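Q: Got a minute? One more chain.
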Amino acid sequence: MTPMTPASDHRRAPSLPRALGWTVLSALLPGAGHVRSGRWWGWVVLLLTVGGLAASALYVGDLHRALDLVFDPARLRVAAAVALVALLLWLTVVVSTYLVLRPRDLDRTRSATGVVALVVLCLLLASPVALGARYAMVQADLVDDVFRDNRTATAPQHVTADDPWDGQRRVNVLLLGGDGSVTRDGLRTDSVILVSVDTRSGDAVMFGLPRNLVGAEFPPGSPLHELYPEGFTNSYDPAAAMLNAVYGQVPALHPGVLGRSDNEGADAVKQAVEGTLGIPVHYYVLANLQGFQEIVDALGGVTVNINEPVAINGSTDRGIPPTDYLDPGPDQRLNGFQALWFARGRWGSDDYERMLRQRCMVQAIIDEADPLTVLRRYQSLVAAGKQIVRTDIPADLLPAFADLALKVKGAQVRSVAFVRSEEFHPEAPDLEWVRAQVDRALEPPVRRERGEPATEPTDRPADEATDDPTEDPDDDLTEDPDDDEADPGAAVDVADSCAYDPDGWDADGS
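A: Always. Here it is, folded:
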């Protein structure tokens, strides 16, 4: 008499490979395996899965909503928790699929093989989900640590997530590089670059000011302008009157002068740059130059063109020679340590050459930070950024800034470096000339908040200066004695000024 087979056995796979195949399919499309086994609730799981995937695709497919999620710590933490719960349910469906479909008559070897295959499959499923949840928690901590509780007295007051630029055509962000911890009161800002970005096109202009600029002005109406109507000075210590001393000196001498702020030094430098260049400074980003090395290493390095040897270590003032040099050459791949000295090396060069190399380094980082690189090295980048970056960009505007950064990456980036020339002397700068070059570089010009139109660089109106194609609108500018074709203060394409051209390279970046 033939023994009766349980009804459930007819629903099982006839072999181990078939059972594992259906288990894999169920991992890709949860519920499919249970539909195969004849269980009605397999259809429920399958429909819920398809609906959930469709909803997720619609949400993530909207870039703005995705960015809102990425920069909202509360929603990120909820998303991480939801992902982990979904993972547990997913693994439960996968394991139960194997259990209901595996043949009953497996010997010990095949049974062990099935269990090992199931464990491997579960690990493959769990790893990316767990990593994604980890990234979400790391991102939430980054936003909380860097972009929360960093109020300044000079940040725009009437911006919203719906109108992040307050109706303005350009947003201006001050990049500061400091020689110590970003939380240190006495920090000196040895790198000062204002980045002005067209919010529609992403085209950007970088304005580099030398650290030893004396007499930086503050905008009219500012309490600091009342204290320093002729510009920032210090009769007791000339070095304390330079631009790189504003960050530490103003809070020490005039605490609370600009109002309540979590970083009075940054407020003071923003005001000094605004008054000097004649255009608003909306936000700042301060980075510790030493920690900058960690950012570059986290990116996996950067690529730059080196037109002349750049010293590593060394001090010209104290007569200490360098310990090594970065060799000239095109497309040189630099690690963090090398990139740091490319940006700040001074032996055998001056502050202006260093300032020009810094703008090339900014462009190199923009080029390197493609989405795939950032994703692969995300945790390293976040760990470095939390330690070395301080800013007053509010967390609510981060999606807008991320969207703008994507535009900048594919747009034109130009730069204006105020280097020593017949028109510009950092010890006694002609700030009207400086502001004229700023207006000339911005299209359309950004007028100063001084109740007067910006000064044109020539006696002719700007539109007349370009009517005759045979005329050079810059012919009346005094030329640099070291370069007959140089135009001090002119905006140049960063890609051109940072190209490999050792014979044509000069300190003005032309």
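A: Residues 108-147 form the longest helix (40 residues).
Q: Perfect, thanks.
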